[in-house]
Protein: Cellulose binding type IV domain-containing protein
Organism: Mucilaginibacter galii
Amino acid sequence: MLPHFPVFHMNKSALGRTFVTACFSILTMVLPAQSQTFLKAKGRLITDGKGNKVILRGMGLGGWMLQEGYMFKLGNTGQQYRIKARIADVAGAEYANRFYDKWLTNHTRKIDIDSMASWGFNSIRLPMHYALYTLPVEQEPVAGQNTWLEKGFAMTDSLLKWCKANHMYLILDLHAAPGGQGNDLAISDRDASKPSLWDSPANQQKMIALWKKLAQRYANEPYIGGYDIINEPNWGFEKATDRKGTEETRNAPLRQLMVDITKAIREVDKNHIIIIEGNGFGNNYRGVFPLWDNNMVLSFHKYGNFNNLGSIQNFLNMSRDNNVPLWMGESGENSNTWFTEAIKLVEGQNIGWSWWQEKKIGINNPLEIKLTPSYQKLIDYWYGKAPKPSQSEAIATLDEFLENIKLENNIYHRDVTDAMFRQVKTDVTVPFKSVTVIGKATINAVDYDLGSQRKAYYDKDTSSYQYTPGVKTQGNRGHVYRNDGVDIEADNDGYHIYSMEDGEWLKYTFNVKQAGVYTVKLKVASEVGKGKVSLNLETVHYPGKAITTKDWSYLEFKNIKLRKGLNKLQVNVDEGGLNFKAIEFVKNK
């Protein structure tokens, strides 16, 4: 079965583009390839070897080497080692080990990287788990020495090969450091019963040695975009009550560790950018300056706040004062509107970005892992809401899950990548699905146009500002099908739009085979026993009609003239509190 994304599903124009691409591919095999150059920090810009500005547009591979519970509806489980223990509980320890080997094989493959390149990404951020590259300190046969594991290095080599084939940069990110770098346990798979990175000189020395080993391996590889040496430290050095590290004023242990890592890298690698992150989940740089290397980039992470200059002004000031480039190394987990606004904001300041993440269970990423009934039953057991499954049942469920994490079994959310690339450049709307009216046709209400807020649709709640006090919006409150602000929920035979408020509207672009007079019927229901809907067709307004039933019924708009070719219809909610299922077109005789 072929995956549902643009690389494979093509109309005639897409076939034409594919032919051009194929010809280009043949040419690139015949002509000598241009040599790739190392990325460099040049003033406040990231540039290629010729000094040309490079805007990194990247995706983080969260969930591959390092699982976090929320990605798979396991928020109560948290760290990866605890997820593994729960798998062992229901399926056995031997199966749990096989599960993780298969997970690493299936989750991210060449097809994932090829697809991301086709969507517009030019870089990949690899969140690494140190334990795939070296043993934990407490497991070393000889204290103070490092046992190197081929697994992680081989995985990185394969990923680099796939990136090179697509002319994409690979940025190495140490997401899980030895011992764990913060009090947010899941992001580094930290076991709080053992010494943290900051409590253990041995963990710090292992981290330094790992970066030197990686730098030795990739020193002469220009497709490595840089070394993101520590992800989101969150630690109270001056006072233990500052568990997030947001109040720290000196950050001396963090600065010293990053200086020591840089020194070790530079002993073997003079080429690559060193990317650093402050305390407080990457954003608290107090005490970190002055910088200690001339090829560095400051990373900041941005989630759930407003997309205005004020939200990044502190980082812009740091960039200006230290003459250093910025990179938004992690962002996402929000609605399409927020995505478009955030990318416009940072690219307008010559700042590249990396999104979080390619796939998980949920709609706010390019790929969605399906939540099956059997997996839901397993989750219910882990939450104490269902009986324990038999071992054979658990293994069958987990085997199914391992297949569902493959890209070809994911749900591709074209609206997400459209918001991240096309909508950043244009306000033009395009059909979500191609519909041609030949005498009669139906458009599902949830298939309104692809486009931005106030262009393809208007909804009063379009984004989540979970880190902004007093703002409780969330975008699509149903959390299914699409990632815009429009509220969508599942029903017995698909999806419908619900909780439509006064003044909200949706636009639909469709093709008409034969011009003529049509009846347009809206399948609607009222949540509150009333409601009113009107239509706009190009410049013509069709006055509103009242909805009075809570059951699905049809509002008919008669004698609507549709021209041959493209038509644009806007459905307006004059009085809200209603559900909307479909639009039906019937040509009058």
Residues 537 and 569 are 5 Å apart (CA to CA). The mean pLDDT is 93. Residues 36-64+107-369+405-416 form a domain with the TIM Barrel fold (CATH 3.20.20.80).
